[in-house]
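Entry for malonyl-coenzyme A complex. Fields follow.
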Amino acid sequence: MNPTANQNFLGALAAVADAHAQRTCLIQPGAENWSFAMLSDASRRVAGALAEAGVGPGDRVLAQVDKSAHAVALYLGTLRVGAVYVPINTAYTSEEVAYFRGDSEPRVLVCREQDVPALAPVAGEADLLSLGADGDGTLLQNAAQATPVDTITKRAADDIAAIVYTSGTTGRSKGAMLTHDNLTSNARVLLDYWGWADDDVLLHALPVFHVHGLFVALHCALLSGTPMIFLPQFDASAVIDALPQATVMMGVPTFYTRLLARDDFTQQTCAGVRLFISGSAPLTEQTFAAWEARTGHRILERYGMSETMMNTSNPLDGERVPGTVGYPLPGVEARVVDAGGQELARGEVGVIEVRGANVFAGYWGMPEKTAEEFRDDGFFITGDLGKMEEDGRVSIVGRAKDLVISGGYNIYPKEVERLIDEMPEVLESAVIGVPHRDFGEGVVAVVVPVDEAVEEPQVRAVLEGRLARFKHPKVVVNVPDLPRNAMGKVQKKELRDRYEGLFSEA
Ligand code: MLC
Ligand code: AMP
Protein backbone atom coordinates (compact mmCIF):
# COMPACT_ATOMS: atom_id res chain seq x y z
CA MET A 1 0.00 0.00 0.00
CA ASN A 2 1.33 3.44 -0.94
CA PRO A 3 1.04 5.49 2.25
CA THR A 4 0.94 8.78 0.37
CA ALA A 5 -1.92 7.72 -1.91
CA ASN A 6 -5.51 8.57 -1.12
CA GLN A 7 -6.86 5.65 0.92
CA ASN A 8 -10.43 6.95 1.07
CA PHE A 9 -12.57 3.82 0.52
CA LEU A 10 -14.79 5.89 -1.74
CA GLY A 11 -11.90 6.02 -4.22
CA ALA A 12 -12.20 2.28 -4.78
CA LEU A 13 -15.98 2.47 -5.08
CA ALA A 14 -15.85 5.46 -7.42
CA ALA A 15 -13.42 3.71 -9.77
CA VAL A 16 -15.83 0.78 -10.05
CA ALA A 17 -18.79 3.11 -10.52
CA ASP A 18 -16.98 4.94 -13.33
CA ALA A 19 -16.14 1.67 -15.03
CA HIS A 20 -19.79 0.54 -14.85
CA ALA A 21 -21.43 3.95 -15.13
CA GLN A 22 -24.40 2.89 -17.26
CA ARG A 23 -25.02 -0.39 -15.50
CA THR A 24 -27.98 -0.67 -13.12
CA CYS A 25 -26.87 -0.37 -9.52
CA LEU A 26 -30.13 -0.22 -7.54
CA ILE A 27 -33.14 -2.16 -8.80
CA GLN A 28 -36.09 -0.69 -6.92
CA PRO A 29 -39.35 -2.56 -7.56
CA GLY A 30 -42.14 -0.02 -7.98
CA ALA A 31 -39.71 2.88 -8.32
CA GLU A 32 -37.04 4.11 -10.71
CA ASN A 33 -33.88 2.04 -10.99
CA TRP A 34 -30.60 3.86 -10.40
CA SER A 35 -27.48 3.33 -12.50
CA PHE A 36 -24.00 3.57 -10.99
CA ALA A 37 -23.69 6.98 -12.67
CA MET A 38 -26.88 8.20 -10.99
CA LEU A 39 -25.67 7.09 -7.58
CA SER A 40 -22.26 8.74 -8.09
CA ASP A 41 -23.92 11.90 -9.23
CA ALA A 42 -26.29 11.94 -6.25
CA SER A 43 -23.38 11.40 -3.86
CA ARG A 44 -21.52 14.37 -5.41
CA ARG A 45 -24.56 16.58 -4.87
CA VAL A 46 -25.08 15.40 -1.30
CA ALA A 47 -21.38 16.02 -0.69
CA GLY A 48 -21.97 19.57 -1.95
CA ALA A 49 -24.74 20.11 0.60
CA LEU A 50 -22.60 18.65 3.39
CA ALA A 51 -19.61 20.82 2.44
CA GLU A 52 -21.87 23.86 2.41
CA ALA A 53 -23.03 22.94 5.92
CA GLY A 54 -19.39 23.08 6.97
CA VAL A 55 -18.77 19.32 7.07
CA GLY A 56 -15.08 18.61 6.56
CA PRO A 57 -12.62 15.77 7.07
CA GLY A 58 -13.17 13.94 10.34
CA ASP A 59 -16.51 15.63 11.08
CA ARG A 60 -19.33 13.31 11.97
CA VAL A 61 -22.57 13.02 10.00
CA LEU A 62 -25.20 11.37 12.19
CA ALA A 63 -27.95 9.77 10.11
CA GLN A 64 -31.30 8.36 11.20
CA VAL A 65 -32.91 7.89 7.81
CA ASP A 66 -35.13 5.40 6.05
CA LYS A 67 -33.52 2.99 3.64
CA SER A 68 -33.50 4.46 0.14
CA ALA A 69 -31.20 5.20 -2.79
CA HIS A 70 -30.80 8.71 -1.35
CA ALA A 71 -29.66 7.23 1.96
CA VAL A 72 -26.92 5.36 0.09
CA ALA A 73 -25.95 8.63 -1.60
CA LEU A 74 -25.76 10.25 1.84
CA TYR A 75 -23.35 7.55 3.04
CA LEU A 76 -21.18 7.88 -0.06
CA GLY A 77 -21.36 11.70 0.00
CA THR A 78 -20.13 11.65 3.59
CA LEU A 79 -17.12 9.55 2.61
CA ARG A 80 -16.49 11.84 -0.37
CA VAL A 81 -15.89 14.88 1.87
CA GLY A 82 -13.71 12.79 4.21
CA ALA A 83 -16.28 12.87 6.98
CA VAL A 84 -17.34 10.05 9.31
CA TYR A 85 -20.69 8.35 8.73
CA VAL A 86 -22.65 7.54 11.90
CA PRO A 87 -25.79 5.55 11.04
CA ILE A 88 -28.39 4.77 13.69
CA ASN A 89 -31.47 2.57 13.84
CA THR A 90 -34.68 4.31 12.75
CA ALA A 91 -36.45 2.64 15.68
CA TYR A 92 -34.52 4.72 18.22
CA THR A 93 -36.51 7.26 20.18
CA SER A 94 -35.52 10.91 20.41
CA GLU A 95 -34.15 10.20 23.90
CA GLU A 96 -31.84 7.58 22.42
CA VAL A 97 -30.89 9.87 19.51
CA ALA A 98 -30.02 12.59 22.04
CA TYR A 99 -27.40 10.25 23.48
CA PHE A 100 -25.86 9.47 20.09
CA ARG A 101 -25.86 13.16 19.18
CA GLY A 102 -24.19 14.11 22.45
CA ASP A 103 -21.61 11.34 22.17
CA SER A 104 -20.66 11.66 18.50
CA GLU A 105 -20.93 15.49 18.37
CA PRO A 106 -21.90 15.54 14.70
CA ARG A 107 -21.60 18.61 12.48
CA VAL A 108 -24.84 17.54 10.82
CA LEU A 109 -27.76 15.36 11.92
CA VAL A 110 -29.85 14.04 9.04
CA CYS A 111 -33.25 12.64 10.00
CA ARG A 112 -36.57 11.71 8.45
CA GLU A 113 -38.83 14.67 7.72
CA GLN A 114 -41.48 13.55 10.21
CA ASP A 115 -38.87 13.41 12.99
CA VAL A 116 -37.72 17.03 12.63
CA PRO A 117 -40.01 18.41 15.37
CA ALA A 118 -38.97 15.71 17.87
CA LEU A 119 -35.27 15.92 17.05
CA ALA A 120 -34.89 19.70 16.79
CA PRO A 121 -34.60 20.02 20.59
CA VAL A 122 -31.85 17.36 20.75
CA ALA A 123 -29.81 18.47 17.72
CA GLY A 124 -27.58 20.65 19.89
CA GLU A 125 -24.79 22.24 17.85
CA ALA A 126 -25.52 20.06 14.84
CA ASP A 127 -27.27 21.38 11.76
CA LEU A 128 -30.53 19.44 11.42
CA LEU A 129 -31.29 18.38 7.87
CA SER A 130 -34.03 16.08 6.65
CA LEU A 131 -34.20 13.34 4.05
CA GLY A 132 -37.30 11.42 2.99
CA ALA A 133 -37.07 8.05 1.25
CA ASP A 134 -38.44 9.75 -1.88
CA GLY A 135 -35.78 12.46 -1.74
CA ASP A 136 -37.90 15.13 -0.10
CA GLY A 137 -36.39 17.29 2.64
CA THR A 138 -33.81 19.96 3.22
CA LEU A 139 -30.73 17.85 2.49
CA LEU A 140 -31.55 17.51 -1.19
CA GLN A 141 -33.01 21.02 -1.39
CA ASN A 142 -29.64 22.31 -0.22
CA ALA A 143 -27.87 19.92 -2.56
CA ALA A 144 -29.76 21.38 -5.51
CA GLN A 145 -28.32 24.83 -4.66
CA ALA A 146 -24.81 23.66 -3.77
CA THR A 147 -21.87 23.03 -6.08
CA PRO A 148 -21.41 19.26 -6.49
CA VAL A 149 -18.14 17.93 -5.10
CA ASP A 150 -16.14 16.03 -7.70
CA THR A 151 -13.01 15.42 -5.68
CA ILE A 152 -12.60 12.68 -3.12
CA THR A 153 -11.04 14.07 0.03
CA LYS A 154 -7.74 12.45 0.80
CA ARG A 155 -7.79 10.07 3.75
CA ALA A 156 -5.15 7.83 5.29
CA ALA A 157 -5.79 4.10 5.70
CA ASP A 158 -6.28 4.49 9.44
CA ASP A 159 -8.54 7.54 9.27
CA ILE A 160 -12.05 6.90 10.53
CA ALA A 161 -14.73 6.32 7.89
CA ALA A 162 -17.65 5.36 10.11
CA ILE A 163 -18.71 5.01 13.71
CA VAL A 164 -21.15 2.19 14.38
CA TYR A 165 -22.81 2.19 17.76
CA THR A 166 -22.99 -1.03 19.66
CA SER A 167 -24.59 -1.14 23.08
CA GLY A 168 -22.43 -1.49 26.17
CA THR A 169 -23.02 -4.21 28.74
CA THR A 170 -22.62 -1.83 31.64
CA GLY A 171 -23.00 1.72 30.44
CA ARG A 172 -24.29 3.46 27.37
CA SER A 173 -23.64 2.55 23.75
CA LYS A 174 -20.08 2.56 22.47
CA GLY A 175 -19.17 3.88 19.04
CA ALA A 176 -16.95 1.43 17.15
CA MET A 177 -14.59 3.43 14.93
CA LEU A 178 -14.09 1.73 11.57
CA THR A 179 -11.27 2.96 9.37
CA HIS A 180 -11.07 3.26 5.60
CA ASP A 181 -8.71 0.30 5.65
CA ASN A 182 -11.15 -1.76 7.74
CA LEU A 183 -13.88 -1.18 5.14
CA THR A 184 -11.63 -1.72 2.13
CA SER A 185 -9.92 -4.87 3.35
CA ASN A 186 -13.07 -6.62 4.57
CA ALA A 187 -15.00 -5.85 1.38
CA ARG A 188 -12.20 -7.16 -0.84
CA VAL A 189 -11.86 -10.35 1.20
CA LEU A 190 -15.59 -11.04 1.06
CA LEU A 191 -15.83 -10.50 -2.71
CA ASP A 192 -13.14 -13.06 -3.21
CA TYR A 193 -14.24 -15.55 -0.52
CA TRP A 194 -17.85 -15.60 -1.69
CA GLY A 195 -16.83 -15.73 -5.34
CA TRP A 196 -18.64 -12.58 -6.43
CA ALA A 197 -19.15 -12.73 -10.20
CA ASP A 198 -19.93 -10.12 -12.81
CA ASP A 199 -23.43 -11.52 -13.31
CA ASP A 200 -24.36 -11.57 -9.63
CA VAL A 201 -27.50 -9.80 -8.45
CA LEU A 202 -27.81 -9.29 -4.70
CA LEU A 203 -31.18 -9.26 -3.01
CA HIS A 204 -30.79 -6.53 -0.39
CA ALA A 205 -33.61 -6.47 2.20
CA LEU A 206 -31.52 -5.58 5.27
CA PRO A 207 -31.55 -2.23 7.04
CA VAL A 208 -28.67 0.10 6.14
CA PHE A 209 -27.79 1.28 9.64
CA HIS A 210 -25.86 -1.82 10.74
CA VAL A 211 -22.72 -3.38 9.36
CA HIS A 212 -24.62 -6.31 7.81
CA GLY A 213 -26.74 -4.23 5.42
CA LEU A 214 -24.55 -1.15 5.14
CA PHE A 215 -21.12 -2.69 4.75
CA VAL A 216 -21.23 -6.42 4.11
CA ALA A 217 -24.10 -6.41 1.62
CA LEU A 218 -23.80 -2.97 0.04
CA HIS A 219 -20.02 -3.09 -0.36
CA CYS A 220 -20.05 -6.47 -2.09
CA ALA A 221 -22.34 -5.09 -4.78
CA LEU A 222 -20.79 -1.62 -5.07
CA LEU A 223 -17.22 -2.88 -5.17
CA SER A 224 -17.99 -5.47 -7.83
CA GLY A 225 -20.09 -3.16 -9.99
CA THR A 226 -23.06 -5.52 -9.84
CA PRO A 227 -26.73 -4.67 -9.26
CA MET A 228 -28.75 -5.00 -6.07
CA ILE A 229 -32.49 -5.50 -5.78
CA PHE A 230 -32.89 -2.83 -3.15
CA LEU A 231 -35.98 -3.44 -1.01
CA PRO A 232 -36.91 -0.85 1.64
CA GLN A 233 -37.22 -3.54 4.32
CA PHE A 234 -37.72 -7.26 4.70
CA ASP A 235 -41.18 -8.25 3.57
CA ALA A 236 -41.61 -11.95 2.78
CA SER A 237 -43.97 -11.35 -0.16
CA ALA A 238 -41.67 -8.78 -1.75
CA VAL A 239 -38.69 -11.07 -1.29
CA ILE A 240 -40.55 -14.01 -2.88
CA ASP A 241 -41.41 -11.76 -5.84
CA ALA A 242 -37.82 -10.55 -6.23
CA LEU A 243 -35.87 -13.75 -5.60
CA PRO A 244 -36.30 -15.12 -9.15
CA GLN A 245 -34.16 -12.20 -10.38
CA ALA A 246 -31.46 -12.65 -7.69
CA THR A 247 -28.34 -14.79 -7.45
CA VAL A 248 -27.31 -14.00 -3.85
CA MET A 249 -29.29 -13.18 -0.72
CA MET A 250 -27.93 -12.10 2.65
CA GLY A 251 -30.10 -12.14 5.73
CA VAL A 252 -30.49 -12.64 9.44
CA PRO A 253 -31.97 -16.01 10.48
CA THR A 254 -35.45 -14.46 10.85
CA PHE A 255 -35.49 -13.86 7.07
CA TYR A 256 -35.00 -17.57 6.53
CA THR A 257 -37.60 -18.74 9.06
CA ARG A 258 -40.16 -16.27 7.72
CA LEU A 259 -39.64 -17.46 4.15
CA LEU A 260 -39.92 -21.07 5.23
CA ALA A 261 -43.26 -20.25 6.85
CA ARG A 262 -44.64 -19.36 3.42
CA ASP A 263 -46.21 -22.12 1.32
CA ASP A 264 -45.61 -20.09 -1.84
CA PHE A 265 -41.85 -20.12 -1.19
CA THR A 266 -40.52 -23.07 -3.19
CA GLN A 267 -37.42 -24.43 -4.86
CA GLN A 268 -38.69 -22.71 -8.00
CA THR A 269 -38.58 -19.29 -6.27
CA CYS A 270 -34.84 -19.56 -5.86
CA ALA A 271 -33.97 -21.42 -9.03
CA GLY A 272 -31.52 -18.68 -10.06
CA VAL A 273 -29.90 -18.19 -6.66
CA ARG A 274 -26.35 -19.49 -6.21
CA LEU A 275 -25.77 -18.41 -2.60
CA PHE A 276 -27.75 -17.78 0.57
CA ILE A 277 -25.76 -16.18 3.39
CA SER A 278 -26.85 -15.86 7.02
CA GLY A 279 -25.39 -14.00 9.96
CA SER A 280 -25.80 -11.52 12.84
CA ALA A 281 -27.40 -14.20 15.01
CA PRO A 282 -27.17 -17.99 15.31
CA LEU A 283 -28.81 -19.97 12.53
CA THR A 284 -30.33 -23.08 14.05
CA GLU A 285 -29.57 -26.49 12.65
CA GLN A 286 -33.32 -26.97 12.15
CA THR A 287 -33.56 -23.90 9.93
CA PHE A 288 -30.47 -24.98 8.01
CA ALA A 289 -31.98 -28.44 7.44
CA ALA A 290 -35.46 -27.15 6.59
CA TRP A 291 -33.97 -24.72 4.09
CA GLU A 292 -31.96 -27.44 2.42
CA ALA A 293 -35.00 -29.71 2.26
CA ARG A 294 -37.14 -26.95 0.72
CA THR A 295 -34.67 -25.35 -1.67
CA GLY A 296 -31.74 -27.72 -2.09
CA HIS A 297 -29.41 -24.92 -0.83
CA ARG A 298 -27.09 -25.20 2.15
CA ILE A 299 -27.06 -21.75 3.77
CA LEU A 300 -23.58 -20.28 4.20
CA GLU A 301 -23.28 -18.98 7.77
CA ARG A 302 -20.70 -16.38 8.69
CA TYR A 303 -19.83 -14.52 11.89
CA GLY A 304 -19.18 -10.84 12.44
CA MET A 305 -19.59 -7.84 14.69
CA SER A 306 -19.89 -4.08 14.44
CA GLU A 307 -16.33 -3.81 15.73
CA THR A 308 -14.83 -6.17 13.18
CA MET A 309 -17.24 -6.63 10.32
CA MET A 310 -16.74 -10.19 9.08
CA ASN A 311 -14.46 -12.55 10.98
CA THR A 312 -15.24 -16.08 9.85
CA SER A 313 -17.23 -17.77 7.14
CA ASN A 314 -18.25 -21.19 6.00
CA PRO A 315 -16.65 -21.95 2.65
CA LEU A 316 -18.15 -21.24 -0.73
CA ASP A 317 -16.78 -24.52 -2.07
CA GLY A 318 -16.53 -27.23 0.49
CA GLU A 319 -18.58 -28.36 3.41
CA ARG A 320 -20.90 -25.84 5.08
CA VAL A 321 -21.44 -27.25 8.53
CA PRO A 322 -24.58 -26.17 10.37
CA GLY A 323 -23.93 -24.90 13.86
CA THR A 324 -20.50 -23.61 12.88
CA VAL A 325 -19.51 -20.22 11.51
CA GLY A 326 -16.66 -21.58 9.42
CA TYR A 327 -13.03 -20.62 9.13
CA PRO A 328 -11.31 -17.32 9.93
CA LEU A 329 -11.37 -15.24 6.75
CA PRO A 330 -8.08 -14.62 4.95
CA GLY A 331 -6.15 -11.99 6.93
CA VAL A 332 -8.16 -12.62 10.10
CA GLU A 333 -6.66 -14.57 12.99
CA ALA A 334 -8.97 -16.13 15.55
CA ARG A 335 -8.20 -17.91 18.80
CA VAL A 336 -10.16 -19.20 21.78
CA VAL A 337 -8.88 -18.32 25.24
CA ASP A 338 -9.70 -18.98 28.88
CA ALA A 339 -10.61 -16.31 31.44
CA GLY A 340 -6.91 -15.56 31.95
CA GLY A 341 -6.29 -15.03 28.24
CA GLN A 342 -4.47 -18.37 27.73
CA GLU A 343 -5.14 -19.99 24.39
CA LEU A 344 -7.17 -23.19 24.74
CA ALA A 345 -6.74 -26.49 22.97
CA ARG A 346 -8.95 -27.25 19.98
CA GLY A 347 -12.44 -28.29 21.03
CA GLU A 348 -12.37 -26.43 24.36
CA VAL A 349 -14.87 -23.65 24.99
CA GLY A 350 -13.65 -20.14 25.79
CA VAL A 351 -13.87 -16.55 24.58
CA ILE A 352 -13.22 -15.88 20.91
CA GLU A 353 -10.56 -13.26 20.14
CA VAL A 354 -9.72 -11.90 16.71
CA ARG A 355 -6.98 -9.84 15.08
CA GLY A 356 -6.64 -8.52 11.54
CA ALA A 357 -7.08 -5.63 9.15
CA ASN A 358 -10.84 -5.86 9.75
CA VAL A 359 -10.59 -5.01 13.46
CA PHE A 360 -11.73 -1.52 14.44
CA ALA A 361 -9.59 1.32 15.74
CA GLY A 362 -11.27 1.53 19.14
CA TYR A 363 -14.34 3.03 20.79
CA TRP A 364 -15.01 6.68 20.06
CA GLY A 365 -13.98 8.79 23.05
CA MET A 366 -13.46 5.74 25.28
CA PRO A 367 -9.74 4.94 25.45
CA GLU A 368 -10.06 2.98 28.70
CA LYS A 369 -12.90 0.84 27.38
CA THR A 370 -10.87 0.24 24.21
CA ALA A 371 -7.82 -0.79 26.24
CA GLU A 372 -9.92 -3.22 28.31
CA GLU A 373 -11.14 -5.04 25.23
CA PHE A 374 -7.81 -5.50 23.49
CA ARG A 375 -4.96 -7.80 24.48
CA ASP A 376 -1.40 -6.47 24.41
CA ASP A 377 -0.72 -8.45 21.23
CA GLY A 378 -3.56 -6.71 19.38
CA PHE A 379 -6.27 -9.37 19.67
CA PHE A 380 -9.79 -8.01 20.26
CA ILE A 381 -11.86 -9.79 22.91
CA THR A 382 -15.20 -10.40 21.19
CA GLY A 383 -17.20 -11.50 24.24
CA ASP A 384 -18.55 -14.44 22.23
CA LEU A 385 -18.06 -17.93 23.61
CA GLY A 386 -16.95 -20.57 21.20
CA LYS A 387 -14.57 -23.30 20.30
CA MET A 388 -12.24 -24.07 17.48
CA GLU A 389 -12.63 -27.49 15.94
CA GLU A 390 -9.63 -29.66 15.00
CA ASP A 391 -9.89 -28.53 11.39
CA GLY A 392 -9.89 -24.81 12.34
CA ARG A 393 -13.63 -24.20 12.07
CA VAL A 394 -15.14 -21.95 14.69
CA SER A 395 -18.41 -22.72 16.51
CA ILE A 396 -20.19 -20.16 18.65
CA VAL A 397 -21.76 -21.70 21.72
CA GLY A 398 -22.90 -18.67 23.68
CA ARG A 399 -21.98 -15.22 24.90
CA ALA A 400 -19.83 -14.06 27.77
CA LYS A 401 -21.53 -10.67 27.44
CA ASP A 402 -25.05 -10.17 28.77
CA LEU A 403 -26.72 -9.60 25.43
CA VAL A 404 -29.94 -10.62 23.72
CA ILE A 405 -30.02 -10.89 19.93
CA SER A 406 -33.55 -10.61 18.61
CA GLY A 407 -34.15 -10.74 14.88
CA GLY A 408 -30.53 -9.64 14.41
CA TYR A 409 -30.89 -6.58 16.66
CA ASN A 410 -28.84 -6.42 19.83
CA ILE A 411 -30.54 -5.62 23.10
CA TYR A 412 -28.51 -5.01 26.24
CA PRO A 413 -30.56 -6.17 29.25
CA LYS A 414 -28.98 -3.57 31.53
CA GLU A 415 -30.47 -0.75 29.48
CA VAL A 416 -33.98 -2.20 29.87
CA GLU A 417 -33.55 -3.25 33.50
CA ARG A 418 -32.42 0.24 34.46
CA LEU A 419 -35.74 1.73 33.34
CA ILE A 420 -37.90 -1.06 34.76
CA ASP A 421 -36.13 -0.78 38.11
CA GLU A 422 -37.12 2.89 38.25
CA MET A 423 -40.80 1.88 38.37
CA PRO A 424 -42.19 2.37 41.89
CA GLU A 425 -44.14 -0.89 41.51
CA VAL A 426 -40.93 -2.88 40.93
CA LEU A 427 -38.38 -4.01 43.50
CA GLU A 428 -35.95 -5.37 40.96
CA SER A 429 -35.84 -6.99 37.54
CA ALA A 430 -33.82 -9.23 35.29
CA VAL A 431 -34.16 -9.03 31.51
CA ILE A 432 -33.32 -12.17 29.56
CA GLY A 433 -33.63 -13.61 26.06
CA VAL A 434 -35.31 -16.97 25.53
CA PRO A 435 -35.89 -18.97 22.35
CA HIS A 436 -38.42 -17.35 20.02
CA ARG A 437 -39.54 -18.99 16.80
CA ASP A 438 -39.59 -15.77 14.76
CA PHE A 439 -36.87 -13.62 16.32
CA GLY A 440 -34.49 -16.35 17.51
CA GLU A 441 -34.58 -14.83 20.96
CA GLY A 442 -37.44 -12.91 22.54
CA VAL A 443 -37.03 -10.41 25.36
CA VAL A 444 -38.57 -11.36 28.71
CA ALA A 445 -38.62 -9.18 31.83
CA VAL A 446 -38.62 -11.11 35.08
CA VAL A 447 -39.76 -8.70 37.78
CA VAL A 448 -40.08 -8.80 41.54
CA PRO A 449 -43.09 -6.60 42.30
CA VAL A 450 -43.29 -4.48 45.42
CA ASP A 451 -46.87 -5.56 45.91
CA GLU A 452 -49.36 -6.21 43.09
CA ALA A 453 -48.24 -8.10 40.00
CA VAL A 454 -46.76 -5.86 37.30
CA GLU A 455 -48.38 -6.35 33.89
CA GLU A 456 -46.74 -6.07 30.47
CA PRO A 457 -48.69 -2.95 29.37
CA GLN A 458 -47.45 -1.09 32.48
CA VAL A 459 -43.86 -1.89 31.57
CA ARG A 460 -44.39 -0.95 27.93
CA ALA A 461 -45.95 2.36 28.99
CA VAL A 462 -42.84 3.21 30.98
CA LEU A 463 -40.47 2.27 28.15
CA GLU A 464 -42.54 3.96 25.43
CA GLY A 465 -40.71 6.92 23.96
CA ARG A 466 -37.59 6.11 25.94
CA LEU A 467 -36.39 2.86 24.37
CA ALA A 468 -36.84 1.60 20.82
CA ARG A 469 -39.78 -0.80 20.70
CA PHE A 470 -37.78 -3.82 19.56
CA LYS A 471 -36.10 -3.68 22.99
CA HIS A 472 -39.39 -3.81 24.91
CA PRO A 473 -40.09 -7.10 26.72
CA LYS A 474 -42.57 -9.22 24.81
CA VAL A 475 -43.56 -10.88 28.09
CA VAL A 476 -43.38 -9.82 31.76
CA VAL A 477 -43.17 -12.55 34.41
CA ASN A 478 -43.65 -11.84 38.11
CA VAL A 479 -41.58 -13.77 40.69
CA PRO A 480 -41.20 -13.45 44.47
CA ASP A 481 -37.41 -13.18 44.14
CA LEU A 482 -34.58 -13.56 41.65
CA PRO A 483 -32.23 -16.55 41.83
CA ARG A 484 -28.77 -15.46 42.97
CA ASN A 485 -25.43 -17.18 43.45
CA ALA A 486 -23.29 -17.00 46.58
CA MET A 487 -21.83 -13.70 45.36
CA GLY A 488 -25.33 -12.24 45.11
CA LYS A 489 -25.22 -12.14 41.30
CA VAL A 490 -28.51 -12.84 39.50
CA GLN A 491 -28.42 -16.26 37.84
CA LYS A 492 -29.67 -15.43 34.39
CA LYS A 493 -28.91 -18.89 33.09
CA GLU A 494 -31.32 -20.35 35.62
CA LEU A 495 -33.99 -17.86 34.52
CA ARG A 496 -33.37 -18.64 30.84
CA ASP A 497 -33.75 -22.35 31.57
CA ARG A 498 -36.90 -21.75 33.60
CA TYR A 499 -38.62 -19.74 30.87
CA GLU A 500 -37.17 -21.39 27.79
CA GLY A 501 -40.58 -22.63 26.59
CA LEU A 502 -42.34 -19.29 26.99
CA PHE A 503 -42.46 -18.54 23.27
CA SER A 504 -42.75 -22.09 22.02
CA GLU A 505 -46.14 -21.18 20.57
CA ALA A 506 -44.84 -17.85 19.22
C1 MLC B 1 -39.10 -5.39 14.84
N1 MLC B 1 -39.62 -5.69 16.04
C2 MLC B 1 -38.78 -6.48 16.70
C3 MLC B 1 -37.68 -6.66 15.84
N2 MLC B 1 -37.91 -5.98 14.69
N3 MLC B 1 -38.84 -7.03 17.92
C4 MLC B 1 -37.79 -7.77 18.30
N4 MLC B 1 -36.71 -7.99 17.53
C5 MLC B 1 -36.63 -7.44 16.29
N5 MLC B 1 -35.56 -7.64 15.52
C6 MLC B 1 -40.91 -5.27 16.59
C7 MLC B 1 -41.19 -3.79 16.43
O1 MLC B 1 -40.69 -3.07 17.52
C8 MLC B 1 -42.68 -3.76 16.35
O2 MLC B 1 -43.19 -3.87 17.65
C9 MLC B 1 -43.02 -5.05 15.61
O3 MLC B 1 -41.91 -5.92 15.83
C10 MLC B 1 -43.22 -4.84 14.13
O4 MLC B 1 -42.17 -4.02 13.61
P1 MLC B 1 -41.67 -4.12 12.10
O5 MLC B 1 -40.68 -3.05 11.84
O6 MLC B 1 -42.86 -4.25 11.21
O7 MLC B 1 -40.88 -5.48 12.17
P2 MLC B 1 -40.45 -6.42 11.05
O8 MLC B 1 -40.52 -5.76 9.71
O9 MLC B 1 -41.18 -7.68 11.22
O10 MLC B 1 -38.88 -6.61 11.39
C11 MLC B 1 -38.31 -7.82 11.72
C12 MLC B 1 -36.98 -7.96 10.96
C13 MLC B 1 -36.10 -6.74 11.32
C14 MLC B 1 -36.34 -9.24 11.41
C15 MLC B 1 -37.24 -7.99 9.47
O11 MLC B 1 -35.93 -6.67 12.72
C16 MLC B 1 -34.77 -6.76 10.62
O12 MLC B 1 -34.65 -6.36 9.48
N6 MLC B 1 -33.70 -7.23 11.30
C17 MLC B 1 -32.35 -7.23 10.75
C18 MLC B 1 -31.40 -6.66 11.76
C19 MLC B 1 -29.98 -6.51 11.19
O13 MLC B 1 -29.75 -6.10 10.08
N7 MLC B 1 -28.99 -6.89 12.00
C20 MLC B 1 -27.60 -6.79 11.62
C21 MLC B 1 -26.76 -6.24 12.77
S1 MLC B 1 -25.05 -6.22 12.29
P3 MLC B 1 -44.43 -3.03 18.16
O14 MLC B 1 -44.43 -3.23 19.63
O15 MLC B 1 -44.20 -1.63 17.75
O16 MLC B 1 -45.60 -3.66 17.47
C22 MLC B 1 -24.38 -7.51 13.17
C23 MLC B 1 -23.04 -7.95 12.78
C24 MLC B 1 -23.15 -9.12 11.86
O17 MLC B 1 -25.02 -8.09 13.97
O18 MLC B 1 -22.55 -10.17 12.11
O19 MLC B 1 -23.87 -8.98 10.87
P1 AMP C 1 -23.37 -6.36 16.73
O1 AMP C 1 -23.16 -5.71 18.03
O2 AMP C 1 -24.67 -6.01 16.10
O3 AMP C 1 -22.22 -6.15 15.88
O4 AMP C 1 -23.53 -7.92 16.99
C1 AMP C 1 -22.46 -8.79 16.90
C2 AMP C 1 -22.79 -10.07 17.60
O5 AMP C 1 -23.72 -10.83 16.84
C3 AMP C 1 -21.60 -10.97 17.74
O6 AMP C 1 -20.75 -10.59 18.79
C4 AMP C 1 -22.27 -12.31 17.95
O7 AMP C 1 -22.66 -12.45 19.31
C5 AMP C 1 -23.49 -12.21 17.07
N1 AMP C 1 -23.35 -12.92 15.80
C6 AMP C 1 -23.04 -12.44 14.59
N2 AMP C 1 -23.04 -13.43 13.68
C7 AMP C 1 -23.34 -14.58 14.33
C8 AMP C 1 -23.50 -15.93 13.96
N3 AMP C 1 -23.37 -16.35 12.71
N4 AMP C 1 -23.81 -16.83 14.93
C9 AMP C 1 -23.96 -16.44 16.20
N5 AMP C 1 -23.84 -15.18 16.62
C10 AMP C 1 -23.54 -14.25 15.70
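NOTE: The radius of gyration is 23 Å.
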